[in-house]
Amino acid sequence: MGWVESLQRAIDYMEEHLLDDLSIEEIAKQAHVSVFHFQRIFTILTGITLGEYLRRRRLTLAAQELSNTSSRIIDIALKYGYDTPEAFSKAFRRQHDLTPSQARNNTGKLKSYNRLTIQVTLKGAEPMKYKIIERENFQVVGIKRELSCVNGENLTEIPKMWADVHADGTNDLLFKLNNGEINGVLGVCVDKRDAQAQLMDYWIATEHNGDTPESLMNLDIPASKWGVFEVHGAMPDAIQKVWKQIYSEWFPSSHYKHAGTPDLEVYSAGDPWGPDYYSEIWIPLK
Hints:
Mean pLDDT: 91
Number of helices: 10
Largest sheet: 8 strands, antiparallel
CATH class of the largest domain: Alpha Beta
CATH superfamily of the largest domain: Regulatory factor, effector binding domain
Number of strands: 8
Helix content: 40-55%
Shape: elongated
Strand order of the largest sheet: 1-6-8-7-3-4-2-5
Low-confidence stretches: none
C-alpha cells in the first residue's frame, strides 16, 4: 500500500468511527506508522491537530442534525461525545458562532468542515532543491525536553524551548561546539514510541566530535540514507512550507519512505527572520 493510500485509509477509518471513542493508536495503525509520525504528518498537511479535526467534523455533523431533525439537543450532545448540554453548547458556539438552539431554528450561518481527501499535487513552478546522501552514525550534543503530543502540546512547547536557549546562551554555546559535517544548530524530533503516553523527546543540539560538556547531553543519530532539503526564507514560514511540500508532493511521487528514526532541522548562523536565511530539513529514508 502506498503512502497516500495509507493516510487516506486512516482518514476513512476516522470518518467511519466518528461517533466512537476513537483511539489515536488505532488510527495510526491504519496508516502503518507510529502515533508520533501520524500526528506530525497530519498537522503538517492540514495545519490543525488530529483532535481539532475530529472536533470540527463532529460539530459539523451535529449542526446538520440540529437543522434537519427533531432530535433533542441533549441527545445530539451525547451522540457526539459531550456529557452535558453546557459543554456541547460551549464547543458548538466556538465553532459556529451560534448556539445549538439558533441552529435548530435555522438562525444564522453554520460552518461546515468537510471530510478530508488526500490529493497528490505536483507543482513544477516551485521546484524543490534536495540531495540524497548516506552517512554513518554520528553524535550530537545539546539539551532535550520530553514533550506530550496530546492535543498538539508539543507544537506550542517547542517554540518556547527555542526562546529559552536563545535567552540563556545555550544557542551560542552550541554554535561554538559545532565541529561536525552538519553546519548549524539542530532541532531533533525523537519518537519514543510510547503508545500510551504519546511522548516525544525534542532536542536542540549540534553535531560535535569530542567529549560532551557537563551542561549538555549526547544523542547518537543512527546511520542512514538522508534526504537533505534546502529551505530559503524567514522562519518559521519558510520551513513549514517545505515540510508541507515534502509530504504533499515529494513523498507521494518518490519511491522513498520515512525510515522512522529522528529527522533534523538545521539552522545556520544569521538572522532567522531575514528573507535570505538558509536552513535545511534532513529526513532519514528507506
